[in-house]
Amino acid sequence: MVHLGMSGSLRVMPAATPPFVHDHVDIVLDNGQCLRYNDPRRFGSFHWVLGDNHDLLRHLGPEPLSDEFTGGALYQRSRGRKIAVKSFLMDGKVVVGVGNIYANEALFMAGIRPDRAAGRISAARYTTLVSSVQAVLAGAIDKGGTTLRDYVGGDGKPGYFAQQLRVYGRDGLLCRQCTTVLKAIRQNNRATVFCPTCQR
Ligand SMILES: [Zn+2]
């Protein structure tokens, strides 16, 4: 099991390629290629795992593109919770893999204010939110991810989803849907941007 930490990346390349700065691990493949791990900040980690019951996985929620990620499950899990819906959506115990950028975008697409209490959102709106998360992630995967600084995919190329962001990184600019000025707030020390008109 490989944890990429904040800045780790895996790339496929010929095994004979000399290591560059911050290259730490090669997993050499039978075909002469290797899977090379690069990590400038060294927050990543490698674990030898037998079975799927590792401590780091045991308490994780479902994958967002799986059948277990449903509006009904989010609704049940959120009852009585005062936590903001964006923080709820980014909690790995609720669902994995929805980072800050995609949480911002999915909440915009679903028309839900990021600071609304998770426990006050209806089952119908959670169903919409699940569809929005899946649409945003599918779109981002299709574009190779969101390159903000130096991220590259397994093929060494940057992602192009940044050009399609509707709210993230656009605070002070006009909403593309209604031309209201987008508003920025901080939640858990992360940037949140939303449209006060389109998101309720
Ligand atoms: Zn708007």
Contiguous helical run count: 5
How does the helix and strand content classify structurally?
Answer: alpha+beta
The count of DSSP E runs of length 2 or more, i.e. the number of strands, is 7
Compute the number of structural domains. 2
Q: What CATH first level of the largest domain would be assigned?
A: Mainly Alpha
Radius of gyration: 19 Å
Tell me roughly what share of residues is in helical segments. 10-25%
* Coarse shape: globular
Q: Gap between N and C termini, in Å?
A: 40 Å
Which small compounds were modeled alongside the protein? zinc ion
Strand content: 15-25%
What does this protein look like?
- This protein has five helices and seven strands.
- It folds into two domains: 2-46, no CATH class; 61-194, Helicase, Ruva Protein, domain 3.
- Helix 4 packs across helix 5 (123-142).
- Strand 3 (23-28) and strand 4 form a beta hairpin.
- The longest helix is centred in the middle third of the chain and has 20 residues, at 123-142.
- The strands form three sheets. It has a three-stranded antiparallel β-sheet, with no helix packed on it. A two-stranded antiparallel ribbon has the order 1-5.
- Helix content is 24%, strand content 16%.
- Residues 175, 177-178, 180, 195, 197-198 line the site of zinc ion (ZN).
- Residues 175, 177-178, 180, 195, 197-198 line the site of zinc ion.
